[in-house]
Amino acid sequence: MLDNLTQRLAKVVKTMRGEARLTEANTAEMLREVRLALLEADVALPAVREFIGKVKEKALGEEVVGSLSPGQALVGVVQRELGALMGADLGPEAAQLSFAQQPPAIILMAGLQGVGKTTTVGKLAKYLREQKKKKVLTVSADVYRPAAIAQLQSVTGQAGADFFPSTAQDKPVDIALSALDWAKKHYHDVLIIDTAGRLGIDEEMMKEIAAVHGAVKPVETLFVVDAMLGQDAINTAKAFNDALPLTGIVLTKLDGDSRGGAALSVRHITGKPIKFAGVSEKLDGLEAFDPARMANRILG
Ligand code: GDP
Question: ipTM for the complex?
Fold first, then answer.
C-alpha cells in the first residue's frame, strides 16, 4: 500500500517543527514527495513539473498557522492548487452541457477506441432524456466496425432514446449530416454523434473527425479519456486538442483502482473542463465531475 501524501510528508517533516513559514529549504524535500506521489498516480511528467512549479510559487512565504506543521501547511497548498487545476475554480456551471438555442444541440464524441465512448453516449442519452427531459437522437459515424454501430443501437435502446441507423458503406460526414437532417425534421433536442476510435493516434482518424466537426459544428465536442490511461494520456489529449476545438472532457472508468492521474495530464494539455465522470459499465454510471474529490484521489 502506498502512503497517502499527508503520511508521506509527515515522515519528512518531523525534524522541522516550529518553523513559522514555508521556505525553499523546508519545502524542498516535501516537494520531492509530492512529485513522487503524482508520478505514482501516473500523471505525465510535464504536467507534474508545471504543477510543482505552481505549488512552490504559492507555498513560499505561506504562514504556518496555529498547530499546523509545515507539512500540513504544504498539503493544504497542494490540495488547494490541485483542486483549482481540476476545475474547482471554474464553478459548477463548468460541468453543464451547452444546448444550442436552435435545436438540435449537437454533441460530438471523440477519443481512442475502448475508452468508453459508445457507453458514454448511452449514459448521456439516458441522463439528457431522464434528467433534462430532452428528446435525444444518436448516430454512429464509426464505419470501420459494424459491431460499434450495433453496440450504439443497443445502448441507445436501453437509454430509451432514438437511434439513426448508419452503415459501413456511408461516409462519416454524410452520416452526420443525414442524422442532423432527421433530427431537425423530427424535433429532437439533442443529437449525439459517436465516432470511430483507433487504438492509437492516427492522422486519418483526426482528419475524419475534424471533417465531421466542420460539417455539423457541434455545440459540445467531448473528449472521452480513460482514467486508467497512464503517461500516454498526455499525447492522446494533445492530438485531439490540436485537431478539434474541444469543449469538455469525460473521464471514464473512475470505478477502477487507478489514482486517475490522467485527469491532471488532460487538464494540463487542454485547459478544458472535465464535465462528467464514468463510474460503471451501466448506463446510470455517469456523474458530474467533482474536482475536489478528484484532487484527493490523485494525492492518494
Ligand atoms: P469505445 O470503443 O470508446 O466506444 O468504448 P466502449 O463504450 O465500447 O467501452 C469499452 C469498455 O469499457 C466496455 O467494456 C465498457 O463496458 C467499458 N466502460 C465504459 N465506461 C466505463 C466506466 O465508466 N466504468 C467501467 N468500469 N467500464 C466502462
Answer: 0.99
